[in-house]
Structure formats: C-alpha cells, structure tokens
C-alpha cells in the first residue's frame, strides 16, 4: 500500500513537472513569434534575415527565387523564423491560396520543402515522388499551380544520397512492383553520370534534376509556351542532406528566355 502511494505521488510530480515544462515551451514559442512580428517592420532586421516581400515573390519569379534562397540561408544558420503558421493566418488561408513557388521534390522524409526553405502555410505548392519522377498526374499538378493559382516559379529539387537515383545507378535485377518505373525514368541520368568523373550517384542526382528541368520546359502545351514566353521560370536545385544547403544549379540558371518581369516594377522588397 505504502509503495503504491509512493508510486502515485511520483507520477503526480512527474506529470506536474511535464505540464510546467510544456507551458514554458509554449510561452517561449509565443514570445519568439511576438518578437519576430515586431521585428518584421524593421528594414534592417528584414535585410539581416533575408526577408523578401511575399507579394513581390508571388508577382515575380526572380523574387520568388530570392525568397527561397533567403529562407534556406536562415535554415542553414539555425535562424529559421517559421513564418506563417499562426492560427489567424491558417484560418484566413481556408478562403484561398496563392503559393509563390511550386516545388517538384523527392518523397524522402529528410527533404521537407517548407522546413528547408523556412516557409509557411500557403507558400509552396509541392509535388513529391521518389526521385521526383514525374508522370501525367505530376504534370497536371504543376500546370494547375501555374494556370489556376498564378504560381510563376517551378523548382525541381533533388537531393544528395537519393535512394531512387542510387537504385537507377545500381540497376538491381527484377525490382519488385512498380519500383521499376522509377528506375527506368532515372536511367538516362544514371548512364550519363557513369561517363563523368567523380562520384557517380552525386553526378546522377544533378543530371537527373537537369533532365527533369528540361522535361518541364519542353512539356506541351502549357508549360513549354509559358516558359518560352518568359512568363514562368523553371530551375533546378540539389539539397545537401548533411549541410542543409540548397544549391541552385548553374546549368539551369543560364540562357533563360527573356522575361517581362523587371525588378523596377516591384515595390515593398
Ligand atoms: Zn530521394
């Protein structure tokens, strides 16, 4: 009986301590949010934290790119501000969305776009499959974001150590189920990578992204036209699992079509 009482008291003490700790965590998260909201109006703080105005990012894909780069820099430096996650905003978003970028990424559990770009609810329209392999449904998803939501930046985001790309390089005998679909789609990049110097899987990851960017730029009829007319920007990037850095690939950032977007037209940066 005495032991039972002692056990009961210990449990009560532990539960009370846990509740206190939880209240402290909630309070400090709230304090942190309040500080960030207060600082948001300071031009110097915005500059120091690579803040890009959201309306500008939605209106102009080059600003959207800048906003993603800034968010990833905060994430790498462990200075994420976790924007746009408060209940009032979530409620407002129930009326509609205007994401400023579409991310075509891998399903890998370590490559969560909102976290690694330090963005919030309503910011990113995301299509994820293993090795970011695309088919009809992915195409429709990306076209929907452009045509119906007005999103003007598409980023194909691969990552180091991608299991789907590694499988395409190793070519296992008789892969089970539908996994062969992924391997076949990545195979051209894997073959190209084997001809190059350096680490084959790393090279295949990059080549796969470059091929997928090209696939979208040439996709009839919506994206190819939008890209050729300079109304949409389609670029590629690789996320490094170990460092947290997103590298936007130069190969996908040069020789871009002429665009009607001009930084001079954008205010509020
Ligand atoms: Zn992957």
From TrEMBL:
Enzyme class label: lyase
Keywords assigned by UniProt, alphabetized: Lyase, Metal-binding, Signal, Zinc
Example of a GO MF term: carbonate dehydratase activity
E.C. number: 4.2.1.1
Segment forming the signal sequence: 1-21
Gene3D superfamilies xrefs: Carbonic anhydrase
Textual note on the cofactor: Binds 1 zinc ion per subunit.
Keyword Ubl conjugation: no
Cited Pfam families: Pro_CA
Residues binding Zn(2+), per UniProt: 106, 108, 159, 162
Catalytic activity field: hydrogencarbonate + H(+) = CO2 + H2O
Source organism, top-level taxon: Bacteria
Cofactor(s) needed by this chain: Zn(2+)
Family listed: Belongs to the beta-class carbonic anhydrase family.
Protein name: carbonic anhydrase
Organism: Pontibacter virosus
């Amino acid at each position: 009986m005495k032991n039972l009482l002692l056990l009961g008291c210990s449990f009560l003490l532990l539960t009370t301590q846990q509740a206190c700790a939880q209240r402290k965590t909630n309070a400090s998260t709230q304090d942190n949010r309040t500080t960030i909201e207060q600082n948001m109006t300071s031009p110097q703080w915005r500059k120091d934290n690579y803040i890009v105005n959201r309306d500008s990012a939605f209106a102009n894909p080059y600003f959207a790119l800048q906003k993603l780069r800034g968010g990833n820099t905060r994430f790498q430096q462990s200075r994420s501000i976790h924007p746009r996650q408060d209940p009032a905003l979530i409620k407002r978003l129930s009326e509609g969305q205007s994401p400023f970028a579409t991310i075509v990424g891998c399903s890998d559990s370590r490559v969560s776009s909102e976290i690694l770009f330090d963005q919030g609810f309503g910011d990113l329209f995301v299509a994820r499959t293993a090795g970011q392999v695309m088919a009809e449904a992915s195409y429709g998803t990306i076209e929907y974001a452009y045509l119906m939501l007005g999103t003007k930046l598409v980023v194909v985001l691969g990552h180091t150590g991608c299991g789907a790309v590694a499988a395409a390089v190793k070519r296992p005998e008789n892969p089970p189920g539908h996994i062969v679909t992924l391997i076949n789609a990545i195979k051209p990049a894997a073959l190209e990578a084997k001809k190059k110097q350096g680490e084959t899987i790393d090279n295949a990851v990059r080549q796969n992204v470059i091929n997928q960017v090209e696939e979208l730029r040439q996709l009839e009829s919506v994206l190819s036209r939008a890209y050729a007319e300079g109304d949409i920007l389609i670029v590629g990037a690789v996320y490094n699992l170990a460092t947290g850095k997103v590298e936007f690939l130069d190969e996908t950032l040069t020789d871009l079509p002429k665009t009607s977007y001009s930084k001079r037209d954008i205010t509020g940066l």
